[in-house]
Amino acid sequence: MCQVLKAVRVVGLGLTGLLGGAGAQGTTTNTPTPAAPTKSTPVAANTARTASSVAVEISGTVKGQIVACPKALKVSAAAVCLYVQNTPSSLRPLVRGKLGARALGDWKTSGQASSLLVSDTPNGPLGAFVLLAPLTANESLVVVDAVQAPAASAAPRPATPAGVVKGQPYVLGRDLIGVVNVTSLGGGKFRLNSGGGLPLTVTVGQKSAQLGSGTVELPLAPASDGQNLIFPLAGLRSLGCTFTPAGTNMTVACGSASVGLRPIVF
Hints:
Blueprint: H1 2-24, H2 45-62, E1 65-67, E2 80-84, H3 88-99, E3 103-110, E4 113-119, E5 126-136, E6 139-146, E7 169-172, E8 181-186, E9 189-193, E10 200-203, E11 208-211, E12 214-217, E13 223-224, E14 229-232, E15 242-246, E16 249-254, E17 257-261, E18 264-265
Antiparallel strand pairs: 1-2, 2-6, 3-4, 4-5, 5-6, 7-14, 7-18, 8-9, 9-10, 10-11, 11-12, 13-14, 15-16, 16-17
Helix pairs in contact: 2-3
């Protein structure tokens, strides 16, 4: 792993210039191209969600392992970096095929690295970009980042959903695809299933939940934005799931299935 991290850092130095260009592709303007975003650079809330969603999808497709993004990469706080044991030439069609109509155009290459622009919806506006770069002959670094928010029209901070505890990590039900199946039952109720375990039925705003034919107390009450289940990360233990920190991201494992995601902290 030390050798992997060293290779990631080296590639990070070579990708620094490419990141700014990828974030600026797909837009036309007479003003100078802005510098590549830094860790403190704000990104619009919708593009941050796009980057997170794309990273989750790609992680499962390419079987990537979340690693800390190299400091040399001037990426935003929404960026996710994946270590993959495969070549960029093999990964490009996999990623492009997974994203389908959400991919805006085709891969653009610069040296050994390549980038792809992505939208949140098919043929929608630019929301994120994906970068691929070789680490070794059979290993690659995949970077998913949100596009930089326009300085003149930064998106307002989204309202905190009712019932969430500020400072505590939550996950969206849709981000658990692949490890936990989340079904809306209506009336603020959701059912969560992981593999062959007992189903967990939760109610928005209530800590008490039903696990199989019994009951269980969740550490925090689930919430909802009116469409998605917003579930406390620690509550996944009720399903027998475990989670391992990976920088600012998390690897959630339920049985033999796992997925990389970025928890939401309001």
